[in-house]
From TrEMBL:
Pfam families for this protein: Lactate_perm
Protein name according to UniProt: L-lactate permease
Entry keyword set: Cell membrane, Membrane, Transmembrane, Transmembrane helix, Transport
Keyword Cell cycle: no
Domain of life: Bacteria
Species, as recorded: Mailhella massiliensis
Function statement: Uptake of L-lactate across the membrane. Can also transport D-lactate and glycolate.
Membrane topology: Multi-pass membrane protein
Family listed: Belongs to the lactate permease family.
Keyword set includes Transmembrane helix: yes
Transmembrane segments: 6-27, 34-56, 62-82, 103-123, 129-151, 158-180, 200-219, 231-251, 319-339, 363-386, 407-428, 502-532, 544-561
InterPro entries in the record: Lactate_perm
Lineage summary: Bacteria, Pseudomonadati, Thermodesulfobacteriota, Desulfovibrionia, Desulfovibrionales
């Protein structure tokens, strides 16, 4: 069977999901099971996988999805714990003192705070933490989702302490070492990271300005791009605050720390400069009153009409749970603290291998290394005592039970969606064992077909393959694992030099990062924490524009570097 026909079959499950969610506005809870069924049938009929193996791959996906669901639950639990403890209202009051301007709040929380969380944890954690925080500050839920998903791109390549580079490109380590004539694998990853920063550089300055204009155009009272663009000086200031340590660390140290330290250093510097009024936009921009919002912007979590917020505790105490999350993520993820071997110890894993007797089919959840448990659930429990939630006060009693019961209640819809979505991912990857298609998996068929169409224009399109991988799998790391060798082979086939090989690999890494904007299970997870289940298609239609823009920018840089 030729590659074009295989690609046509491979794209069918994705088209089912896109048409049903973005076209017909079905919820992911209805659309994703049908997309999974389409993928399962094609895996059996076209890729000729045994039915028992498809079932095993589905169960593998369920195990992986359980890990994602724990992250979603942990994020919900933190949000509702802070809501019922009074900390969220305190944070709202504090943010208004820093700046009541929603454009400024978007940059501080959606860009800088989320970049730090991405650098420490990855796993889609930034949207799970930052989006509810914006929601609590009074943002329309749909706007909060779009903003946080789109911003979760620039730091992703170096997310989770460099995992997308260090693990995603492991398969080309030997090839890279031979090409660079070195015995040091760290040099391979550092070289990739250096080129990736150049790929991200234009959007580091363009994306914040674009997203503020996007926000004021689609969610503002006057539907004006100009109101967002008016904060361009502040956006450039934020880009410099994050970008300087980001670039320095990538070029001098390696891929582990650029996003983590770029985010936390940039956040601290930006807040201080904001308090001094430096580059802060004139006037104060805000959303219209919530009763005038489009009903499509709102889900199960109804907006509050409160405009004056009471401080129930000190700002330090209110923010302490987030600070603890950051500290715990850093000390348990950064190797220098020597705790990573403990939290990744297999004794804390649950899962299964060789499911239903199928060799190579299995998945495990590293409970101690999962952000949902450590730190989210752990910090939520600690917060009960830090914020005195067992005491009765003006907020009322039963605060703990309300937080936990509300978080559990919000898990029903995303559970169905994520189980189906991640099961489809497992089937997609699992088709690589098919002898009927000469071991060409569904994702590889799509990538090769795109490459055949591109020819010499490959540098302009290489990032979109990375984006495709992230869209399918929900992970920059897994996208790089899927397509690293393919991208290296494409560079070799096109007769590129050694530096040009690394440019193509870097475009793959940047593409996998920008793919986080549109990947279905990240969107479902964001919808879950914002009460927007059923609005996935609306979000996808909004995030596809910055995704395409990002790919164009990366393609231009790739061509210039070639």
């Amino acid at each position: 069977m030729n590659i074009e026909l295989l690609a046509l079959f491979a794209v069918a499950p994705l088209l089912v999901a896109l048409i049903l969610m973005a076209g017909l506005r079905w919820s992911s809870m209805r659309a994703m099971p049908l997309a999974w069924a389409t993928g399962a049938i094609l895996a059996i009929l076209v890729w000729q996988l045994p039915i028992v193996r498809v079932i095993a791959l589905t169960l593998e996906g369920f195990i992986t999805a359980a890990g994602v669901l724990i992250i979603v639950f942990g994020a919900l639990l933190i949000y509702y714990t802070l809501t019922y403890s009074g900390a969220m209202e305190t944070i709202q009051a504090g943010m208004k003192k820093i700046s009541p301007d929603r454009r400024v709040q978007t940059i501080i929380i959606g860009f800088m705070f989320a970049a730090f969380i991405e650098g420490a944890a990855g796993f889609g954690t930034p949207a799970a933490l930052a989006a509810p925080l914006l929601l609590g500050l009074g943002f329309p839920p749909l706007c909060a989702a779009v903003i946080c998903l789109a911003f979760n791109s620039i730091p992703v390549t170096f997310g989770a302490v460099g995992t997308p580079v260090l693990q995603g490109f492991k398969s080309i380590e030997a090839l890279g070492m031979a090409a660079l004539n070195t015995g040091d694998p760290a040099l391979v990853y550092k070289t990739i990271g250096e080129y990736v920063t150049l790929m991200h550089l234009p959007m580091l300055f363009i994306l914040p300005i674009f997203l503020l204009g996007f926000m004021t155009r689609f969610y503002g009272k006057n539907k004006s791009w100009a109101e967002g663009f008016a904060a361009w000086k502040y956006c450039l200031l934020a880009s410099v605050c994050f970008g300087v340590p980001y670039l320095i660390l990538a070029w001098t140290v390696g891929p582990e720390l650029p996003s983590l330290l770029g985010g936390i250093i940039g956040l601290g510097v930006l807040v201080k400069l904001t308090q001094k009024g430096i580059c802060v936009p004139e006037g104060t921009w805000d959303f219209d009153s919530s009763d005038k919002w489009d009903p499509d912007w709102i889900g199960e979590i109804k907006p509050s009409d409160v405009t004056e917020y009471k401080e129930h505790m000190s700002q330090g105490m209110a923010w302490l749970p987030y600070v603890l999350c950051g500290l715990i993520l850093v000390v348990t993820r950064v190797p220098a603290f020597h705790l990573k071997p403990i939290v990744t110890d297999p004794m804390f894993n649950i899962g299964a291998s060789n499911i239903l007797g199928q060799e190579g089919v299995g998945a495990y959840i590293a409970l101690m290394n999962l952000p949902g448990t450590v730190p989210f659930i752990l910090v939520s429990i600690i917060t009960i005592f830090l914020h005195g939630m067992l005491r009765n006060d003006e907020i009322g009693s039963n605060k703990v039970s309300k937080a936990w019961s509300t978080a559990f209640a919000k898990m029903k819809a995303p559970t169905i969606s994520l189980l189906a979505a991640v099961a489809l991912v497992s089937i997609f990857k699992g088709t690589s064992v098919s002898e009927a298609t000469n071991h060409i998996s569904m994702p590889m068929a799509l990538a090769q077909s795109l490459a055949d169409l591109a020819g010499g224009a490959w540098p302009a399109l290489a990032s979109y393959v990375g984006g495709l991988g992230a869209f399918i799998t929900g992970s920059n790391t897994v996208s790089d694992m899927l397509f690293a060798n393919f991208q290296w082979d494409m560079a070799r086939t096109l007769g590129y030099t050694v530096p040009q090989h690394f440019i193509i690999i870097a475009a793959q890494g940047a593409g996998g990062a920008m793919g986080n904007m549109i990947c279905i299970h990240n969107i479902v997870a964001a919808c879950a924490v914002l009460g927007l289940i059923g609005k996935e298609g609306d979000i996808l239609r909004r995030t596809v524009s910055p995704f395409i823009l990002y790919g164009i920018a990366v393609g231009i840089v790739a061509f210039i570097l070639m």
